[in-house]
């Protein structure tokens, strides 16, 4: 059984960890789809560009998580933060749809590693303690709440340079937070200093992947990752064809930004309320219930062809996702040893990104066959059925304390 007691931390370290969650992603889920749509792509090309964001994280999230266990999260976070500051400024310079796909490939990796680092720090330093874990998730949700409003408004006022300028600033603030972390594994001065980075560390190792996938043999890890994969499928839809649907019915960049701000504002409420809710229902049961609810909320999108109904259902969906996010961090974090915190985060995010890579192009193909509105029933409806089958089949415990 792992030790879940939190380690005392200086205020600077605590604020740096919260900042890494807050600035992990600068509204790229809004700006890049708007940029891609401005290039008038086919539905399939649009799906490929959006799906490209998840390809490198799928391939290398496990490796990145293992590196954070081995070298310390701070070193890896600083390395990817530099790349994350450069790439957003390249989009407007080359207005070609295939270039957007390549750049999104890179930016998807850097933003994912930012969030892997923040979650790894939660496991390494906070040991999955709920009272601290939800604060990091809350900060991440607040960043996703505020950045779409700013980026959407800047897009409408200044065009692509305004929108991508927000992502540049967010990347710079993330780099500042990572820099403020003390040197050492887990972003603390103890226990143990982080090993110096070597060029060979960039190469993935087969045994690292083998040991990491073996973590799926732990039931609570498997349950949490299954819920995470289904939940991220909802995110893949709302970050691609949900935006295309809103643009198709005539919503402006600012209104789309407001929709995503509402998504993350309600997510703040869900994250803040996760501890008392989990205490009443059990954390595993709550994770599964909120994932199913989020899938149902995205499935009915075509029935809500106006701004207010879309905002209201987004409010509900955001609350569900806000509740589930810290649970996805806490449940597996408490089930694995300290030396595997980065690995289990990398495993979960790698499988998440596999779904995000595949789903947008698949949905793009479905849109070409049945139309945009019907595609929500086919894809999201299938996810809803699948989640019900998995829940009935595995019959997960109500709480991780029972697992």
Structural features, described:
The protein is an all-alpha fold and 403 residues long. 76% of the residues lie in helices and 0% in strands. It is built from 17 helices and no strands. It has helices at 11-22, 28-38, 43-52, 55-71, 73-86, 97-126, 130-158, 160-180, 206-213, 219-238, 241-248, 253-272, 274-281, 283-299, 307-333, 341-370, 372-394. The radius of gyration is 20 Å and the shape is globular. The N and C termini lie close together (12 Å). Mean pLDDT is 83; it is low at 1-6 and 186-193.
Order of helices and strands: HHHHHHHHHHHHHHHHH
Number of helices: 17
Largest sheet: none
From the structure provided, what is the oligomeric state, counting identical versus distinct chains?
Answer: single chain
The gist of it:
This protein has 403 residues and is mostly helical. The chain has helices at 11-22, 28-38, 43-52, 55-71, 73-86, 97-126, 130-158, 160-180, 206-213, 219-238, 241-248, 253-272, 274-281, 283-299, 307-333, 341-370, 372-394. α2 packs antiparallel against α8 (160-180) and α13 (274-281) crosses α14.
């Amino acid at each position: 059984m792992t030790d879940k007691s939190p380690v005392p931390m200086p205020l600077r370290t605590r604020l740096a960890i919260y900042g890494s969650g807050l600035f992990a992603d600068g509204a790229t889920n809004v700006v890049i789809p708007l940029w891609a749509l401005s290039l008038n792509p086919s539905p399939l090309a649009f799906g490929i560009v959006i799906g490209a964001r998840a390809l490198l994280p799928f391939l290398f999230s496990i490796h990145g998580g293992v590196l954070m266990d081995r070298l310390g999260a701070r070193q890896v976070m600083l390395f990817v933060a530099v790349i994350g500051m450069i790439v957003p400024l390249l989009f407007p310079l080359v207005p070609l749809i295939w270039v957007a796909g390549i750049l999104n490939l890179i930016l998807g990796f850097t933003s994912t590693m930012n969030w892997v680092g923040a979650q790894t720090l939660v496991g390494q330093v906070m040991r999955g303690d709920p009272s601290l874990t939800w604060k990091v998730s809350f900060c991440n949700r607040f960043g996703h709440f505020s950045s779409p409003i700013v980026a959407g408004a800047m897009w409408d006022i200044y065009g692509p340079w305004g929108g991508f300028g927000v992502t540049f600033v967010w990347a710079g603030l993330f780099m500042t937070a990572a820099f403020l972390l003390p040197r050492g594994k887990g972003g603390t001065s103890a226990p143990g200093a982080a090993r110096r980075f070597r060029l060979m560390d960039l190469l993935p190792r087969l045994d690292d992947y083998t040991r990491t996938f073996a973590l799926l043999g732990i039931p609570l890890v498997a349950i949490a990752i299954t819920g995470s994969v289904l939940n991220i499928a909802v995110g893949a839809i709302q970050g691609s064809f949900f935006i295309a649907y809103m643009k198709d019915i005539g919503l402006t960049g600012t209104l789309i930004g407001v929709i995503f701000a509402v998504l993350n504002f309600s997510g703040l409420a869900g994250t803040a309320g996760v501890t008392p809710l989990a205490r009443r229902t059990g954390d595993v049961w709550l994770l599964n219930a909120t994932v199913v609810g989020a899938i149902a909320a995205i499935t009915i999108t075509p029935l809500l062809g106006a701004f207010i109904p879309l905002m209201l259902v987004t409010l509900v969906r955001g609350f569900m996702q806000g509740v589930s996010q810290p649970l996805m961090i806490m449940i597996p974090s408490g089930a694995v040893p300290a030396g595997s915190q980065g690995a289990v985060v990398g495993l979960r995010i790698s499988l998440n990104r596999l779904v995000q890579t595949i789903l947008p192009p698949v949905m793009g193909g479905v849109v070409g066959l049945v139309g945009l509105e019907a595609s929500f029933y086919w894809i999201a409806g299938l996810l809803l059925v699948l989640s019900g089958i998995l829940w009935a089949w595995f019959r997960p415990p109500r709480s991780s304390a029972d697992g």
